[in-house]
Amino acid sequence: MKAKARYHKSAQDRQGRGADGYLRLLAAVFFLLLPFVFSLQGLDKFRLPKELFLSAGAVVLIAAFLLTRRVSLAGRPARWETLLLAGLLYAGLQSLWAARHLQMTLRAFAVLLLLSLLLLVLREIWSQEFLRRLWFVLGAVAALHSVMTLFQYYGFFSAMVDQQGRTIEGRAIPAGLVGEVQSGAFFFAFCLLLNLYWLFRAPSRSLRLAAAAVVLLNLIGLLYTRTLTTLAALALSLLFWAAYHHWQHFRRGLGVTRAMALLWAGMAAALLLGGVAAHQAGVIDRIQTVAQQMREGDWSVATAGRQPVYALTWSMVLENPLLGTGLDSFGVDFFHYRAETETGRQKQLLEQPGAFREVHNEYLQVWLELGLPGLVAFLALLFWPLVPCLKKAFDLEGGHDPYWWALYAAGVLFVAVECLAFFPFQAPLPAALIILLYSGMRAGQAKAFTQADAAFLSTRAGRLKAFLLIVLALLLIYPRVQAWRANVFMGKGERFLQSAYSQQGSASRRAIAARRALDNLETAVNLCSTCYRAYDLRGSALLLLGRPDKAVESYRRAARYIPSSEVFTNLGVAYMALGRAREARESLQTALHYRPGYAQARQALAQLDQRSR
C-alpha cells in the first residue's frame, strides 16, 4: 500500500511538473504578445486593447491553472500572500461602503481581483531559470520597439499619424504598439534593468554580446521618449546595481581585475553614447529647461504641469483621509472638485484635452480612493518582498543566484520611484511587467496551497470541472471581446463624424456621413454599455441629424462617467439647440471652470449671450 501511494504521488508530481511546463509556455506567449496588441481601427488604438487582452489573458491562464490543480488544505499562503488577500478583502468591502461611483468601483475591483489571482497563479508555476530567459526575450521585444520608436521619431512609421495625415513628431509615442510615452519608457527601462543579468552573468560571449545589444537599444528607446521620471527611476536603480556589483566583486576578494576594467570602460562608453542619443532626442535641452525652472521655483516642466493636480488631490484626500472614495473614482471626482469648488478653480491646470483621469502619483491616488488603510496595505505589498530579496542578494554562500535577486530588488526600487509621477499599476503594460516581477520574487517563497490534480481529465468529475471552467472563462472573456468590437465601431464612428463636421462636400453628403456615424455608434453602445466615450460621440451625431433631445440624453450619460470640458461643452450646445438657455449656460460655465481657456466653450457661451440680448 505504501509503495502504491508513493507511485501515485510521484505520478502526480510528474504530471504537475509537465503541466507547469505548458503553463509557463502559455504565460510566456501572453507576456510577449502584450506589447504588440493594438487596434488601428479603434477609437483607443493602444491602451484599451491592451487592457482587454490583459484581462482576457488572465482569465485563460487562471482557468488553465485550475484545470490541473486542486486546492490543498495542508498548504497555506505566506505572510505577503496573506496580506494580499486581506487587502483584496478590504478593497471589496470598501467598494460597498465608501464608493461614490459604485458601478465604476466594482468594475475596477473585479480587474484588481483578477490580476491579483493571476499573480498568485504565476507564482506557483515559475522557475527562476525560466524567468531569466523570459526577461531576455522580453528585452529583445523591447529592443524591436525601440527601433520602431526611432522610425516614428524620424517620420518613417506610417501607422502613427495625426488626423491630418502628418507624422507625430517630437516626443515620440514608443513604436505605436506600446501605446503611450510613459508605458513605453517603463517597458524599455525595466527590460534594460533586468537584462543586466545576462550582460554580466551569461555563460557565453555570444549571449553577453546579444545582451549588450538589447541593453543599448532599450537605452536608446528610453532616451527618445524623453520621460524624465523614468530616467530618474532608472538612474537610482542603476546606482543600486553598480554599488551591489562592486560590493559582490570585491567581497569575493577579486580586487581590480580585467573584468572590472572592462566594466568601467563599458560604463564610460555607455555614458558617451547615451549622451549623444540624449542630445539628439532633446533630453539634454529638456533637463536644462527643468533645472532652470526649478532654480526659479517653477516645477511645471519637472512635473509635466501636474503639481496643481497633486495639490488638489491632497486637498481631496484631507476631506476623507480614512475611508477613501472608492476605486476608479478619481477621474469623476477630480473634474467636479476642480469645476465646482473655489479651491479647485484657484489652481491653474495644464491646458490639455479631456480631464485628468489619473493623479500621476500612485501613492496619492491609492490614499484618495482606498483611504489610509489602503495606502498602508499598498506600501506593505510594495516593499515587503524586498526583505527576502536582499537577504538572498547579500548571501553569497546560499544555493541561489544572488545577482538575480539583487536585480529584483533594483526592480522594486524602480517601481517605487516611478509611482511618484506615473500610474504604473493602472496602465496595462507596466502592470503586466510588475505582475511578472512580483510573481517571480514570490516563486518558491511560500508553501504551495494547490496540488497537482492527477485526475483532472481522466474521471467524470475532472471532465465536469474542465467543462465548467471553460464555460466560466468564455463568459468572462465575452464582454471583453464585445468591448474590443465596440472600440472598433467607435473608431469608425469618429471618422464618419470628422467627415460630417468638415466643411467639404454638400449638405446631403454630410448628413449621410452623420447617419453612418450614428449607426456605428449605436452598435458600439449596444455592444458595450460601459464604453462611455461612445455616448459622447453618439450625441454629436444626433445633434448633426437635428435630434438635440436625444443628444442631450447621450451627452448627460457621458458627462456622468467621463466628465470633461469637451463633453460639457457638447451638452451645452445641445441645450442651446433645444432653447434651454439656463441648462446650456450651466454646462458651458462648468466646462470653463475646468478649462478657463477652452475656446469652443467660450465661443458657445458668447453665442448664448447674443441670443439672450
Question: Can you walk through the features of this model?
Answer:
The protein has helices spanning 2-33, 47-67, 79-97, 102-125, 128-153, 181-194, 196-201, 205-225, 228-251, 258-281, 283-295, 307-319, 330-340, 342-346, 362-383, 386-393, 402-418, 428-442, 460-501, 507-527, 533-544, 548-561, 565-578, 581-594, 599-612, and strands at 69-71, 450-452. It is globular and about 90 Å long. Helix 3 (79-97) packs antiparallel against helix 15 (362-383). With 613 residues, it is mostly helical. Residues 1-16 have low confidence and may be disordered. The protein has 25 helices and two strands. It starts with a helix and ends with a helix. A two-stranded antiparallel ribbon has the order 1-2.
In short:
This protein is mainly α and 613 residues long. It has helices at 2-33, 47-67, 79-97, 102-125, 128-153, 181-194, 196-201, 205-225, 228-251, 258-281, 283-295, 307-319, 330-340, 342-346, 362-383, 386-393, 402-418, 428-442, 460-501, 507-527, 533-544, 548-561, 565-578, 581-594, 599-612, and strands spanning 69-71, 450-452.
